[in-house]
Specification:
By secondary structure, this protein is of the alpha+beta class. The protein has a single domain (11-136), classed as 3-Layer(aba) Sandwich (Cytidine Deaminase, domain 2), CATH 3.40.140. Helices cover 28% and strands 26% of the residues. It contains four helices and seven strands; from the N terminus they run βααββαββαββ. The longest helix is centred in the last third of the chain and has 14 residues, at 113-126. The structure holds zinc ion. The site of zinc ion has 7 residues, from helix 3 and helix 4.
């Protein structure tokens, strides 16, 4: 038997540090998306913004449904939109923000397991990592690749 472990590195920014970075513009886009979320059941309004390597930006919000599994997270909504409409384009980064009852979460919001799997496969398809930025009022976390968030991904 061998016990193994993972080393996962992430960067933590204070909100003041983050506000000085170019990614703050992506936050503004994701925040507007979150405001437009359809989340009457959870009250958790999530916005996700994607930046392609050519600088174009796309966004989406979570869309819930009375039949819960029929809804979709903001991350998957935007990534499927980009993959369907801009196949072959390289996604450079994805930024997440969440509001609960109109207030931004204090702590960073992280992608759920299903979204992590989809993002990791997107990295495989484009053969390059996607930076993930997870924002909260108190701090912002960033990983260089979604694989850092899902080291033991599902493989066929
Ligand atoms: Zn998700």
């Amino acid at each position: 038997m061998i016990t193994k472990d993972f080393h996962i590195q992430y960067v933590e920014y204070s909100w003041e540090e983050f506000a000085m970075l170019p990614e703050h513009q992506l936050y503004e886009v994701a925040h507007q998306a979150a405001v437009q979320a359809y989340a009457p059941y959870s009250g958790f309004h999530v916005g996700a913004a994607i930046q392609l390597d050519d600088g174009r930006v796309f966004w989406a919000s979570n869309q819930e449904n009375k039949a819960y599994p029929s809804g979709i997270c903001a991350e998957r909504a935007v990534i499927y939109y980009v993959q369907a409409n801009y196949p072959g384009q390289t996604i450079q980064k994805l930024l997440l923000v969440a509001n609960h009852e109109s207030l931004q979460t204090d702590e960073p919001v992280y992608p759920c397991g299903a979204c992590r799997q989809v993002l990791v496969e997107a990295e495989e398809r484009q053969k390059s990592p996607i930076e993930i930025w997870m924002t909260g009022k108190n701090r912002v976390h960033q990983v260089q690749s979604c694989s850092d968030l899902l080291p033991l991904k599902f493989i066929l």
